[in-house]
């Protein structure tokens, strides 16, 4: 697994920037009534029929890091299982459900589900506020400042990444130095032992030779003596 890049967090950060500005107010009674009208069970995932754990936005709220124009409204919320919700992510619901994305419920009985979802989807066919209109509605100054902040965070992330690369290189270099020092020390122990043995051997040889020399001299010295 590679070292994570700080920039990888940018897409989830952009998603939060979008989610933070999209109003959320859903009348639970009206939602229950709407589900009843379309034969939707709030306890079951609309896509695969498993017990639901999440609220899925039929039309994703975020599109390429900016508002899609779809809101958090009862017409755009469907009960879903976490795995379906995550697998669908920012994809168009129909191409996802008919496609082969990992954990997409492309299986038997899907046609009936598609019909049901398509009928529900008609309640929210177009964005309530088109993305292009948002800047005007909010005011260009505030709107631009907000997205500039996201860019600034992106730049900070790039700066942090450059520092991270430098820090990582320094740590890797020190790590290498320490590992090779440890390897050398381990090898050193071996050669010291070998030198120890060799020295002992040479000392023995030396003493044998010395003894031999002494003995060879001894008779001479003896004969020299009185
Ligand atoms: Zn599901």
- Major sheet: size, sense and barrel closure? 2 strands, antiparallel
Tertiary shape: elongated
Mean pLDDT: 86
> Helix-strand pattern, N to C?
HHEEEEHHHHH
What ligand species are in this complex? zinc ion
Strand content: 5-15%
Tell me the number of helical segments per DSSP (H or I, 4 or more residues long): 7
Q: Walk across the major sheet and give the strand order.
A: 1-4
Q: Give me the count of strands.
A: 4
How far apart lie the N and C ends?
90 Å
Give the % helix. Answer: 55-70%
Contiguous low-pLDDT stretches (5 residues minimum) are 220-226
**From the alpha-carbon coordinates, what is the Rg to the nearest angstrom?**
39 Å
Question: Pairing-aware structural class of the strands and helices?
Answer: mainly alpha
Question: What is the fold's blueprint, element by element?
Answer:
Elements: H1 10-19, H2 28-37, E1 54-57, E2 62-63, E3 66-67, E4 77-80, H3 82-88, H4 93-98, H5 110-121, H6 131-138, H7 140-224
Antiparallel strand pairs: 1-4, 2-3
Q: Overview of this structure, please?
A:
61% of the residues lie in helices and 5% in strands. The chain has 226 residues and is mainly alpha-helical. The strands form two sheets. The chain has a two-stranded antiparallel sheet with strand order 1-4. It has a two-stranded antiparallel ribbon with strand order 2-3. A hairpin with a 2-residue loop joins β2 and β3 (66-67). α6 crosses α7. The longest helix is centred in the last third of the chain and has 85 residues, at 140-224. The chain is elongated and about 120 Å long. The protein binds zinc ion. Zinc ion (ZN) binds at residues 45, 47-48, 50, 80-81, 84, 105.
